[in-house]
TrEMBL record:
A GO BP annotation: threonine biosynthetic process
Family that this chain belongs to: Belongs to the aspartokinase family.
Membrane-traversing stretches: none
Keyword presence, Transferase: yes
UniProt source species: Halomonas ventosae
Protein name as it appears in the record: Aspartokinase
Annotated catalysed reactions: L-aspartate + ATP = 4-phospho-L-aspartate + ADP
Alphabetical list of Pfam families matching this protein: AA_kinase
SUPFAM superfamilies: Carbamate kinase-like (SSF53633)
Length: 431
């Protein structure tokens, strides 16, 4: 059965990383194998800056950024291929020329359309180089344009997949002819041929789309960490790896802000019970983490999630009336319109409390709107702690010395809001 591998920008950030990728793939001889690749390193950020420069006019800033992008990719080619750069250099130069042409053509169009027609070149460039290097290393490959495989609507920057059309386009990629299929993450295309992008975590989603349509055996996402953890290792000094959790548990963790796999990636895999494994490309012997159907291990280890720079709003009707369904509908509708997500929602007879990410450009208009019709109390610079599968002793230990400003709890999840000043530095998970 087909395996789908996904490699992010960190795993191909330069020529040395691409060599390591080739060495890794040489160890996996099973076919069929589909490899989904992101843009190199911070290329997407560079393309977004190039986009803004193009929309302001093709001045020196635009030309300098385009030339930097060209030089960086050609430097990787030269480092990999030495004097044998000819065909690969020609393909990279052709892509840079086409990127420049598209900026000229689309700079006057709406930004989301312009974005999708140009930012996609990061993945096209990276896969061109990676595919050529795998061939150089003795592995037969087939380069595929994801814009011709993943069919979407024209909702640019957050395109929706046409699953039936996509399944028809990818049919046959699971035949075993000895070649590795190399394609791009994050991008797709409309039936009319316009480029689209898939939004947040789009490359992981691309891998899931292809796996779903091919009835793959497994998806492996290769990262610079060995797997998934029960807390952010940068904030918790004794975070533990979760070697196995269920789709549902992973979705819960992602919903509450954990840096795991985005729910839209898990959905297509869960539908067909395709496991997702997270492995380290730096240490192939490290035990991986697997997300699948098995729920037996979900409650064995509590998981902790910190979300900082939070704002707590306590909203009350001005006429001292109940916070009934109609008022909650009105308030939450405004939240949706503002494009904000509430990490905590708690209600009482005469109040509704919301803990929100502090995005000023979205938060301030929302607060102004609510203040016009409700009495609003506000606290800024807060930290939201979410704990899955906690007992009372753990919650008491985590809250010691901290002032709880809001709290919500159900059978599986406990949430508390603390002043940010009381939550700095490294945390320790009590035994």
């Amino acid at each position: 059965m087909t395996q789908v591998f996904k490699f992010g920008g960190a795993s191909i950030q330069d020529a040395a990383a691409i060599r390591r990728l080739g060495e890794l793939l040489a160890r996996f001889r099973a076919r069929p194998l589909v490899v989904v690749v992101s843009a190199m390193g911070k290329t997407t950020n560079a393309l977004e800056a190039l986009l803004e420069a193009a929309r302001e006019g093709e001045g020196d800033d635009y030309r300098d950024r385009l030339e930097t992008l060209r030089r960086e990719h050609l430097a990787a080619v030269e480092s990999l291929f030495g004097t044998r750069t000819g065909p690969v250099t020609e393909r990279v130069e052709a892509l840079i020329t086409e990127l420049d042409r598209r900026h000229r053509r689309h700079a006057g169009r709406e930004r989301s359309f312009h974005y999708d027609q140009t930012v996609c070149f990061g993945e096209l460039l990276s896969t061109t180089i990676v595919s050529a290097w795998l061939e150089e290393a003795g592995m037969a490959t087939q380069w595929l344009d994801a814009r011709e495989l993943v069919v979407t609507d024209d909702c640019h920057q957050a395109a929706n997949v046409d699953w039936q059309a996509t399944a028809e386009r990818v049919r046959g990629l699971d035949r075993d002819d000895g070649r590795i299929r190399v394609t791009q993450g994050f991008i797709g295309g409309t039936a009319e041929g316009a480029s689209t992008t898939l939004g947040r975590e789009g490359s992981d989603f691309s891998a899931a789309i292809l796996a779903h349509c091919l009835d793959a055996e497994e998806v492996t996402i290769w990262k610079d960490v060995p797997g998934l953890f029960n807390a952010d290792p940068r904030r918790f000094d004794n975070a533990l790896q979760l070697e196995q959790i269920s789709y549902g548990e992973a979705i819960e963790l992602a919903w509450h802000g954990a840096k795991v796999i985005h729910p839209k990636t898990l959905g297509p895999l869960q539908q067909k019970a395709i496991p997702l494994t997270v492995r380290s490309f730096q240490d192939l012997e490290a035990p991986p983490s697997t997300i699948g159907r098995d729920t037996r291990f979900d409650t064995q280890t509590p998981s902790l999630i910190l979300r900082e720079a939070q704002t707590l709003l306590e909203i009350r009707p001005r006429d001292f009336a109940f916070m009934d369904e109609a008022r909650q509908h009105d308030i939450l509708g405004r939240l949706v319109e503002a494009g904000l997500h509430a990490g905590l929602i708690d209600s009482g007879a005469m109040r509704l409390s919301l803990c929100l990410d502090g995005h000023p450009e979205r938060l301030e208009p929302l607060v102004a709107s609510l203040c016009a019709d409700y009495a609003v109390a506000r606290r800024d610079d807060l930290t939201l702690l979410t704990v899955r599968h906690a007992d009372d002793a753990l919650l008491a230990a985590l809250g010691a010395g901290r002032d709880c400003l809001a709290e919500r709890r159900n059978a599986d999840t406990a949430q508390r809001v603390f002043p940010g000043s009381q939550c700095r530095g490294t945390w320790h998970i009590p035994a």
